[in-house]
Amino acid sequence: MEDAEPIATPAEPKKGLRRAIERKQQRCAQTANCVDRIDAILSDMPTRLDSPIQTLPLRATRPSSFPDADIHAAESRVKKHDLYAAAKGGDATASVGLVLDLLDEASIESLRRYESRSPMIVPVHGLEGVSANAIPAVLAVCLSDRLGFDLSTEIIRTSKAAHTGSSGWWRLKSPALFGGEVTAGRSYILVDDFIGMGGTFANLRGYIEARGGAVVHAQALTGKPYSAKLALQASTLQALRSKHGDIETWWVAQFGYGFDELTESEALYLLRIEHADAIRRRLAQAESQGDG
């Protein structure tokens, strides 16, 4: 009788592949836990406000030393992800899968320098009917779990969010407004899915700091790298006032804040325009055309 051939045993995965498999298994476990938590958080978030809703944004002058916002992943990588469309549409499971695939470890670890301040992480999340996007809440939950920071669910966006691809003029004309409870004396880290010109972060920071909180940092899942610099530089403000200073009083009446409270990206956007009348005209056109 011939000897039976030995049964072949599966080859041990190479080190890199083994790590990839382990990460996938960890993500699967995280996804199940995170979806349950996200569902609970979203259901607990306020759907109405008892306090009056803002009509103009609140802003605070951002010191030039304020750190740049962190961006976890390139915009092209996020938009090409298989789960992106479903996540933007409000699918919590897709949002969790998207965020877990794209989290940047260095950006997460950079927030540990605020541990001594016991910060709260606050996502840009809208009232029912304002926004279905769950990505900011998912990102906030993931950061809260990893870092052990508290999660704020009391502060909510009360105005309709601009589309990710919206023009800069529409973003300026339709600012993000907020409502809800702020804990005075507490530090906050702001989280959103996208940073375009930094206006949403600027308005949320202004809302929090007007009520006694302190904003120490901001992170977005993706966005424009040049918009990561939120702090307006003195040279940019000087150039803007030199070129368009004659409309700053009008600007304050329209938007509730002066040129010194713009983000760096917003100010540079206005500086591109040759004449002040063109700024008024383009803002009026954005209002009439809507968020196309």
Query: For the terminal residues, how far apart are their CA atoms?
Result: 79 Å
Helix content: 40-55%
The third-level CATH topology of the largest domain is Rossmann fold
User: What portion of the residues fall into strands of 2 or more residues?
Assistant: 5-15%
Largest sheet: 5 strands, parallel
Number of strands: 7
- Morphology: globular
Overview of this protein structure:
- By secondary structure, this protein is α/β, with parallel strands linked by helices.
- It has two domains: 57-228, 3-Layer(aba) Sandwich (Rossmann fold), CATH 3.40.50; 234-289, no CATH class.
- Helix content is 44%, strand content 11%.
- The chain is built from twelve helices and seven strands.
- Helix 8 links the parallel strand 6 and strand 7 (214-223).
- Helix 9 packs parallel to helix 11 (264-271).
- The longest helix is centred in the N-terminal third of the chain and has 30 residues, at 15-44.
- It is globular, with a radius of gyration of 22 Å.
- Residues 7-11 have low confidence and may be disordered.
